[in-house]
Amino acid sequence: MSDPFIQNEQYNLIKEQVRLVKESRMQSLPPSVLRAVIDLAQSKVIYAFPEATTEQLKLLQFSTLQTNEAFEEYMQQLQEWVQPFPVVSAEQLKDLFPKQKKLRLPELADVDFGRLTYLSWNDGRSKQKLMICQHEGRLIGIVCKPSTNTKKNICAFCNQFTDVTYCVTITKAKQAKNPDYYKAIGTYICVDSKTCNEHITSQEALHTFVHKALQV
């Protein structure tokens, strides 16, 4: 039997495509159009798992489902194959931010690690947004400075139109003519990271942000 192999963002993608198929089956679409919608939805999911085994590919099949009950049962059963985000302790969080001497930690008991692509929280005292991400097989911490204003815009991570804040982080890249200068990068990110984790369907934008932040 396969071990959990679905990441949170992949589960969200499957959920999104399953919902599309379910809603399409409720409409009076021509059979050829409905077939095209189902095939495309199934292909998007399979494409997101390039290293899936034959057994895992079977678990990802939903194209033959027809009733609402079948769709709901499928998504419930799929949850047992979701690989949780690494559970971290308060001490581990502190180690990831060695320069933050008075770090305010999130309530870890309230964190659902089973539905995380990244862990993030706001430190009201330092007015910083702190992020924990997985990068090249290890956890890394990134400190961001969010803008004081929120606005409706597209979140770079989850691609949803929602309440976002412009977050800036200082990278490790230095300017050749000025070694004391460090490059800063910024992007719009969901104010509510919990909501972001519930909608993110790809790590591509997150990986790009992390890569730039760590790039020397």
TrEMBL record:
Residues covered by the Elongation factor G-binding protein N-terminal domain = 5-86
Per UniProt, residues of the Elongation factor G-binding protein C-terminal treble-clef zinc-finger domain are 100-205
**The organism's place on the tree of life at top rank:** Bacteria
Xref: InterPro entries:
EF-G-binding_C (IPR032330), EF-G-binding_N (IPR010841), EF-G_N_sf (IPR038344)
A Pfam entry, by short name: FBP_C
Query: What name has this protein been given in UniProt?
Result: FusB/FusC family EF-G-binding protein
Task: Recall the taxonomic lineage recorded for the source organism.
Answer: Bacteria, Bacillati, Bacillota, Bacilli, Bacillales
